[in-house]
UniProtKB/TrEMBL annotation:
Keywords, in A-Z order: Metal-binding, Nucleus, Transcription, Transcription regulation
Gene Ontology MF annotations: DNA binding; DNA-binding transcription factor activity, RNA polymerase II-specific; zinc ion binding
Domain Xylanolytic transcriptional activator regulatory: 270-341
Record protein name field: Xylanolytic transcriptional activator regulatory domain-containing protein
Polar residues composition bias: residue spans: 637-661
Organism annotation: Rhynchosporium secalis (Barley scald fungus)
Amino acid sequence: MEWCEPRLLVPGVGSFPELHLPIQPRSKPPGKLPTKREVPYLDQVIKSLWDFHHCFSNVREHLRDTAIYSACIDERSRSKIKCIHDGEPPCRSCFKSKRPECILSGPFETGRRQSNGTKPRESAPPTSAKLNVHRDSSVEPASPKPSINDIAAGKLTKDVVLGLSPQVLLVAVTTFTQKFPELAFNHAPTFSSHVKEDVTVWIKIAATLALCHRFLPVTIKDQIPSEDELAACSRESLQSIQSVTPSISAVQSLLIMSMYEWGAGNGYGAWMHSGMATRMMQSLDVMKPDRGSEVIETEIHNRTFWACFVMDRFIFCGRSQPLALPLDTMTIQLPIGEEDFAFGGVSHAGKPMESTGPFTVDEYYTVLVEGFEIWSKVLDLIISGGRRTPGMSQPENCPWVTGSPWKKLLDSVEEWRSQHSDRLRFPASGVAVHVSLGHGEKFAYVNLLYYVCILFLNREYIPFLPIQLPEPVGPIDPPLLEASAPPGWWHSRAKDLYNAAECITLIHQQLDELNAPLLTPFAAFCSFCAGSMNGYVTSFPQMNLNRSPKSAAHEELNFLHLEKFTALWKMGRGWAQTLKRVQTLRFHVIRDRARFIGKTRSDFVALYESIHDYAGVSPIVRAETELSANGASISQLFDGNESNDSNENAQEMRNNPQPRSSVLGELMPELNPEIFLTGDEIWNQAWPMWGDQQFGTFDEAELQFNYDQDLPTL
């Protein structure tokens, strides 16, 4: 007997070419269905098809009812914009616009409107007595889709996060890895499997989306909750898991939220999240079993520990502070290379630290770990008093003396740099080639870290207002150094200082030109530091022997970078304000040079301290004075009413125009040009010491560890 595979047609189901059932050919009238005898298990086949058809019809009718036939009244009144909702208010438009009331209007009739007035056809199962159609009771109904109300109220957020498409997660993880090289613990090839295995990894996803929200394309943002919702959910969820068994994903979530709070201007929150991550990681390290051959898991554990180490040095409270993870207590190996990590290379976690060079960009995380250890020591020296620390002016502690605190740090920086291959050094290796290979941000981060260390160390000994100085020299205000520097030593320090500022500026410029900007807190801090020095040498070109002809243009680039950063992060407002105030001070110096002769750092203590502001907060102005008799404006600073020396400086400012920034102008209106400095106490009153202003008591009513405060204007 021959067999054929005709297509089975069931009324109401339609044509499904993929469903072919073997039947015996019989001479039957066309259009009749085969019998059960002809097709075994016909009842089960028809039942399955009918169940599928019934389910599909219900879904189709529901979607038509909610997405087409109902709409928000406000949407109807404004235009024929499609109203998107889940069957109950608010609709997406009202939710985003924060309208208090959202009323959905009908019609809500089920089914399509009949043109002939006949009753719509109702779907019904076949009437065969032998066909007993029923649903399998073991199959659970599908979970309802979270609505916009659920997202807004913080309900079902876990389902919302885990329900995101793999494409969204991939974009978020890739963005995080590129923009935040200091947190290099994600293993992208196995990330999706961790999502399924770890019950707390959804919090890490929410924190990652909150941190990277500002960098994501619009098409991705439309598919996820807002940044504030994700951040709030992450905070609440992290609080709820603190008392349960620690996990790697929980530690990573705390580190990500620490970075988020730091950029958002909440220094206290950043410090606390970082501290909790460190303590949780220490407990995990104690409980960690021997993982044997689980190479990737071991390296993820290793890198997460080093991320805690980096954040311990990254989140600085503004004063000298003990480190939670001293380097001499670390017993784990430095991170392996990026390629080995991606492919599951051998990790040596648990063995003593070893470090050999030369390093390439593949070992950038090892380079960053060692670099942040040095950076924390540099920053600690400066904010602890720097050259004004008791004993630092003695001959044995002068900066050129081998073994002095300053020289030890400089030697550490240069030794660290000597381990970098030529391809890891800027400007020997350009930014473009690294961007083309996909690791431009990593290359930039390493070089920014090096140059900001050089800038901080060399800036410590320059005069604050070198009005009458013809060339680079050391301090001119107490405490003076008790020994003389070797010939040419200050010239070399000036060259290194302004070269560092130039390199920081050029790195950012090249990243911007290649559409790979690094708009993260540490990168912006480096730009702020470079801007302060580019402005300084613009006003006093003799302090680098006229070797910085492009300093004014570079200062403008620093302003522009801070504009972009401030548009994304609240942290940058203080840095931008400080640069504008320093710029205004330079204008006053040009206007009345004679009045500023003899002024030193001690006359501008708080302003000087704000230049070292690592936290992005500008001291609050407490007192200002205005000219009452002279109505001069900024443009009149260049009039020929000053001394000859002042006119020379004015001409220099004409040749190197000062930056005027549109975004910064919106954030901080132009400084009042009538403000004039008439005494030694004015700027000290206006600029309280940074540490005193930031860190009062951690009192609930007077918490000062907050960098997101409203900035006063002049």
